[in-house]
Amino acid sequence: MIKKTLTGLLALAPGLAFAHTGHETQGVISGLLHPLLGWDHLLAMVAVGMLAVAGRERPHWQLPVLFVGFMLAGALIGIGGVGIAGVETGIQLSLVVLGLMLAVGVGGFSAATMMCCALFGLLHGNAHGLELPAFRLVTGYVTGFMVATVALHGIGWLAAAKWHATLVRVTGAAMAGAGMLAAISAM
User: Fold this and answer.
1) Global pTM?
2) What are the angstrom distances between the C-alpha of 73 and each of 40, 124, 142, 147?
């Protein structure tokens, strides 16, 4: 029974793995909803917020700010019509890497964490920007997905600040597993 259930879920996974197709891309509400309805974005944004706090006496707000800044840069590049090669694979990889960082207790304001947040922010933003049709007013949509991203970072921040370190690590492992499952199902 468990084997059949897992097989059925795996069969559905490819369609769920990509949050960047066929949805409304106009206005603040659409922008707010995109990171919330795309599970890959949702998990990555929460993970960044968790990394900013996990295992630290003093939270490092710079990680979410870095992610959002590079996400905006990636969106602007995408709006300009330039796609970063392997953006979807990179988004899946972001779940694996950010989740593993949480699972092993890496966090805070280290060079590796900063580079990951910058790179993954750029990729997530590029995916957002690429899905916008040319010549569309994008200010509302961009504002919406940036506000939603900051809110998801805040949720991750609060969770990591309140949860026991073991629960943060288990959550990270689950996020990494979701990213691996998405990558495998996309092959």
Assistant:
1) 0.81
2) 19, 10, 11, 15
